Amino acid sequence: MTDQYIAVAKLDEVPVDGRKRVEIEGKRIALFNVDGEVYAILDTCPHKKTAPLVRGTLDGLGIRCPNHGYRFDFKTGECNVSPQFDTQVFPVKIVGDDILISLASPSD
User: Fold this and answer.
1) Residue 106 in domain
2) Whole-prediction pTM
3) Range of the domain at 92
């Protein structure tokens, strides 16, 4: 797969300290704007597979799951509890007022 980006939202839909869930190619993805930087992370907590991370609590450059408090890093997807719960993050680009993400994994 090539490094293709898909427009998923307008920047004004995710203002600073805002968040938004989008669904792209069957994946629920949560967008977060932290201090003007937009991050995209898989929206389902890998721990129990049910909690939407978009409803979690911001914790620096990460999000805490609303169910059990596991923290996921926006840049790496790393979980603070165990690597077995690491999640997927997506590269983000801002072009004009569009938020674009890439669904390509690093190994593609």
Assistant:
1) no
2) 0.91
3) 5-101
Amino acid type, 29: I
* Token reading at 77: 């997807």
Count structural domains, the chain: 1
Token pair 């427009």 is found at 7
Q: Which residues contact 24 (CB under 8 A, 6 or more apart)?
A: 6, 8, 101, 103
Strand boundaries in 15-55, DSSP class E: 19-24, 27-34, 37-42
The residue whose two tokens read 């993050």 is 89
Task: Produce one character per residue of 47-71: b if its CB has 16 or more CB atoms within 10 Å, e if not.
Answer: beeebebbebeeeeebbbbeeeebb
Q: What is the pLDDT of residues 83-102, one digit of tens each?
A: 999 999 999 999 999 999 99
Q: Are 48 and 33 in contact (CB under 8 A)?
A: no
> Is 108 a member of any domain?
no
